[in-house]
Description:
Blueprint (H helix, E strand, L loop, with lengths): L1 H21 L37 E6 L6 H8 L3 H7 L15 E6 L28 H6 L9 E4 L2 E4 H12 L3 H12 L25 H20 L5 E3 L5 E3 L6 H13 L2 H7 L5 H9 L29 E8 L10 E5 L14 E2 L4 E7 L2 E5 L10 E6 L12 E2 L4 E3 L13 E7 L2 E2 L15 E3 L8 E4 L2 E4 L8 E2 L5
Antiparallel strand pairs: 1-2, 3-4, 5-6, 7-8, 7-20, 8-15, 9-14, 10-11, 10-13, 11-12, 12-15, 15-16, 17-18, 18-19
Helix pairs in contact: 5-7, 6-10, 7-8
Amino acid sequence: MKKKSLTLKIAALLTLLLLNAVACVPERPHYIITAGEVATSEVLPTATQFTERPVYDPGTLVDYVVQSGDTLEHLAWRFGTTRREILFHNPDIPEDITTLPPGYPMQMPIYYKPFWGTSFQIIPDATFVNGPDAIGFDTKAFLNSTPGWFKHFRGSVDGRLMDADEIIEYYAINYSINPKLLLALIEYQTGALSNHQRNKASEEAFLGFQNQHKGVPLQISYVANLLNDCFYRYFNMEIDEMPHEDGRVENIDPWQNSATVALHLYFMRVYDGEFYKRAIGPDGFARTFMGMFGDPWARDLTVLPGNLRQPEMQLPFPKNTIWSYTGGPHSGWGTGKPWSAIDFAPPLATQGCVKTNHFALAVADGVVVRTGPGIVMLDLDGDGDERTGWVVFYLHIAEEGRVQVGDVLKQGDPVGYPSCEGGRSTGTHVHLARKYNGQWIPAASPVLPFNLSGWIPVDGESPYEGWLVRGNDTVRASVLSDAESMVPAEE
Length: 491
C-alpha cells in the first residue's frame, strides 16, 4: 500500500511539472471597480487575529502545499529544518530539483518558533509581479471606468508629461510590478479612484511618505521600489522576522508567501497599531483588491513553475576579447533588492562615458519586444510579451546602432553599443538582468544563477561588489580603473 502511495505521488509530481511547463495563460477579463474602500482615521479598524500555532515538537511533520517560487532551500529556512531532512520525508522529490511545482503536497518537518505572525495571505505572488496575471488587463480602460479624480491626473515622469494610466504602466513595466497592485494601493490609501474630489495639498506625500520623493509620480515610484525590496528580501531568505512598535518581534509564519510578507513590511511603514492590523487582514487591503479586481486566488497562481531551468546563455561579448566585470550583483531597476543585474564594460582607452565600437551581444536567441532610453528587452520565448517566459534586460545601450522592436536575434548577434544612456552611469558599460514570467531572478540565486558561458555571479556584501566564478577561475567586480578583466575560454 505504501509503495502504491509513493507511485501516485511521483506521478502527481511529474504531472505538475509537465503542466507547469506547457500550461497556456488564459485571456484575462477587464475588471470594473465596484466599491472603493478608504482607510481613514474616522473608521475603527478590524483587528487581524494572529495565528496560534501549536508548540510543535522538533521535527514534527506538517502538511504543506507548494507555492510559486518555493525551493528546498527556502522551505528549509522558513520551517527551521534542512534540505536533507525535507528530501528524506519526501523521497519522490528529485535531489537536483530547482523550483518546486506549485500545488504539490508535501510533508514538512517543522521546528517551532514563538510569536509567529498571521497566516492570512493577502494576495498571491502572481498578483504582485507584472507577469501572466496582468495579461488582458487594460489600465486605461479600467481607470476610465472609475468615478474618482485620479483618472484625470497628469504628471511628469523623466521629463515627459504622462496621463495617470501611462504613469501606472511606466512603473509597472520598469519595476515589473502588477499594475492592479499599484492601483489597489492607491485606492486603499487615498480613495483617489472612487472619490471625485481632489485635494492637491495632500499630493506631495500622496502615499504617505514624507521624503524627497514628492508628488504623485515619485511617490508611486518610491512605493514600487519599496515593495520590490521587501518582496525579494523575503524571497531571497534575508527577512524572517518583523519588529513591532510595542517591541514585540514577530516571526513570519512559515506558510506565508513573498507578496503577503512584502505588504506586511510595507504597511508597517504606513500605519500604526490597529490600522496596521486591519490593513493586513481580510477586511483591509485584501477586501479592497477583491472589490476592484475579483478574487486573486481564483486565477492562475503560478509564476515560477516546477523545476525551472535557465536556457543556455553566453557572455554578452565575443570570444577572445577582453571586457571588464565592472559591477557584481545589484538592483535590476531602481535601488534595493533584488540584486538581479551584473555589469560588463568593453575595452576603452579612457574612463567615463565615451563611445565604443564594441557591440554588446545577444546572450541567447530571442525577439526584441521593447526598447527605450538605453533599454533593450530580449524575449527568449518569442511570444512578443515580456510578461511571459524568460526575458533578458539590457540597459545603457546607445540609441545609435541599437536593435529595433521586432528584430529576431540569434545568440551572439549584436544588440547595440554599450554607453551611459538610460538611468545613471559614470562609465560606458552594459547592464544585464533576467526575469521569468515577470519575476526578477536574483543574479546569484542558489538554484537559478545567472549562468553566462559557465560564469556564475556571487553576491558581495554591498551592491556592485562580488565575483564571477567558473571552476577555479574567479573575477572580482570593480567599478574602479583597475577593474579586473576577463577573457572567455574557447569552447
